[in-house]
Amino acid sequence: MLMKTTIPNGLLQLDAALLKLGPQSFGPFCIQVASGERVAILGPSGAGKSTLLKLMSREWTPASGRVFFNERALCDWTLHDLSRRRAVLPQSSEVAFGLQTDLVIGLGRVARTYDPALAEIVDEAARLARASHLLARRFDTLSGGEQARVQLARVFAQLWDAPDGLILVDEPLAALDPGLQFDLLDSLDIYAAERGHAVVAILHDINHAMSGFDRLLLVKDGQLVNDLPSDASAVPALEALYGVALSVVTNVQGDLVVTPLRNAARARSIA
Length: 271
Prior knowledge:
Blueprint: E1 12-21, E2 24-33, E3 38-42, H1 49-57, E4 64-69, E5 72-73, H2 79-83, E6 86-89, H3 101-106, H4 118-128, H5 144-158, E7 166-170, H6 178-195, E8 198-202, H7 206-212, E9 215-220, E10 223-229, H8 235-242, E11 245-250, E12 256-261, H9 264-270
């Protein structure tokens, strides 16, 4: 049974938005995201998480239903105006040429014809993304994790001086070591909170979602199967989503830690 959280005055609203890709349908999705809210999208591989994010970003247009941003139809925004309020970090971000990293970060500011603080914003965005030491490098010489940090800095630069924006990120932590994952989640949280930005992120790590986000959108087979707070009450829904039993403990910092329990029968069949 779908549990739906109602958010008044949503910054982003999907109103029965349905997408068709060949014979497959995704949705209809009915979702609201408020300014300043942190929302994690979870689901098994191939569930439709990236598809949902692409509907939110306007990369794909719904076959039926509507998507609104700031109480205005998303399709009515010009790309110029939208880029000053909404930033997207896709799962893979290729750069065609061997640009220096400061230029890649500065690409987040291209919608501004006059940008006297560009150099300062690039430096500050790189610092926040733990990428200052990469500013003298060419982007195509960086490792996957280093490129991810530079692309996150680009997103920071894009909405640096814009209040109440929207950040959409697809697996932002996938290529990073555990220490950097926590550092960048903290940076993203501080950055968004200072500006009132909402953050919607596709994640694979349940613990990152539980500790760093307000709500969980659970997606399976192209459908939103649950929309619920990121607390202990979400555990049964997460078990159903992934088809595993979960153990929940509280660590010394008071955070919930979720651990999958190995299925004994499955382990014997693999052995």
